[in-house]
Design goal:
By secondary structure, this protein is mainly α. It is 64% helix and 2% strand. It has 10 helices and 2 strands; from the N terminus they run H-E-E-H-H-H-H-H-H-H-H-H. It has a two-stranded antiparallel sheet with strand order 1-2. It is elongated, with a radius of gyration of 32 Å.
């Protein structure tokens, strides 16, 4: 939590530097009794002393501008604010497509569909559980980004460009570990790249290859989850047909049996453990 507070504190300091206090403006011109313009006396009015004898405080004036504070830097303050606001706006896309969230939320959605309960658990629970599992799985990557890129940048040891380059390395390594080779080769061919070393792969190739691989893996896990519940549906339908109860919906009998099987085998624990182990492989 301290590293995030330090990051937002830096943003506030950068924003405050965009708002320098202006100097006192020049003395305005006034009109004399004859109507001709005349300049007011250069001598400022004598401040009326307060009853306690303390001098009166000067009026506070603020000038808002984007010219910065006059200090040198690799990127101007205005550009840094624009970059931060842009990152905040695309943060949901980054979480969805560059982390483990995609696979987790798809598999949990398949579990709910296979059980035959479209509204239990609700979408909020599915998405919330997926987010917390994503935070758990991406913890080592976030720690590396914080130690190798964010802290040195906040301490002034590296520039913002170097911080972005260092932050992309752990994230790229995580994505490449979960990406199939054929997907990377496919996007390299589409982009017109030749033989490229793994460390030199551009993010515009790694990200779509990672997303395609995650979708493929999630659907494979979903298919395996459907098999035991599909067997229950076949058995229930066959038994009802044999008993001549063709008017009885099979879902009415199959749903309690599915829930009973899922509870007896501790289904949620097995699903979550399989998801976590799939990223550790």
């Amino acid at each position: 939590m301290s590293r995030w507070r330090a990051f937002f504190l830096t943003v506030l300091v950068a924003f405050a530097s965009v708002l320098p206090v202006a100097a006192q403006p020049g003395t305005p011109s006034v009109l004399n009794p004859t109507g001709a313009p005349a300049t007011a006396a250069a001598t400022p009015p004598v401040a009326t002393p307060s009853p306690s004898g303390a001098p009166a405080a000067a009026p506070f004036r603020l000038n808002i501008g984007l010219e910065g504070n006059g200090q040198g830097g690799d990127v101007s303050v205005a550009v840094q604010i624009v970059i931060i606001m842009t990152l905040l706006s695309v943060a949901p896309s980054i979480v969805l497509l560059m982390t483990s969230f995609t696979r987790i939320v798809i598999v949990l959605g398949f579990v709910r569909t296979a059980l035959g309960t479209p509204s239990a658990p609700s979408n909020q629970i599915i998405v919330g559980l997926s987010l917390f599992l994503t935070f758990f799985l991406m913890g080592p990557v976030v720690d590396r980004v914080n130690n190798e890129a964010l802290r040195p940048y906040l301490d002034g040891k590296i520039t913002s460009v170097e911080a972005i380059d260092k932050a992309s390395v752990p994230l790229k390594q995580f994505m490449l570990k979960q990406t199939r080779t054929r997907d990377i080769e496919y996007f390299l061919e589409l982009g017109g790249y030749g033989p490229t070393a793994i460390k030199d792969l551009p993010m515009r190739v790694v990200i779509p290859a990672f997303v395609i691989s995650e979708l493929q893996t999630a659907f494979q896990m979903g298919f395996l989850l459907f098999l035991p519940f599909l067997v229950i549906d076949f058995l229930v339908s066959s038994v009802l047909m044999a008993l001549g109860m063709m008017m009885m919906p099979p879902v009415t009998i199959a749903l309690p049996l599915k829930l009973l099987l899922f509870v007896l085998v501790d289904g949620w624990h097995l699903v979550v453990r399989s998801l976590v182990q799939s990223f550790a492989a």
